[in-house]
Amino acid sequence: MAIRYPMAVGLNKGYKVTKNVSKPRQCRRRGRLTKHTKFVRDMIREVCGFAPYERRAMELLKVSKDKRALKFIKKRVGQSAILRRLAKTLLLLTLFSVLR
What we know:
Oligomer: single chain
Family: Belongs to the eukaryotic ribosomal protein eL36 family.
Radius of gyration: 25 Å
GO molecular function, one term: structural constituent of ribosome
GO cellular component, one term: ribonucleoprotein complex
Subunit structure: Component of the large ribosomal subunit.
Helix content: 55-70%
InterPro entries: Ribosomal_eL36, Ribosomal_eL36_sf
Shape: elongated
Distance between the termini: 58 Å
């Protein structure tokens, strides 16, 4: 932005003041993964294991039915962003278990 001069007219008209810098609102951070949330999710996954629909999707991925597995997860989960994240993690887990 241009230097501000105390002028009555023009783009930068008006009295020279320092702008208040406001903190970003909480809604801007919504959905961002925190350390605590990640820890809790990992703990629950370790204790409870996978949901039945996740196990079925992993079986579909094991037999190379990727598209069918994605459609199945999409029907169960609904939300697109969660679908992609879940599909990626399940795919990595199945690949890891196949390679072991």
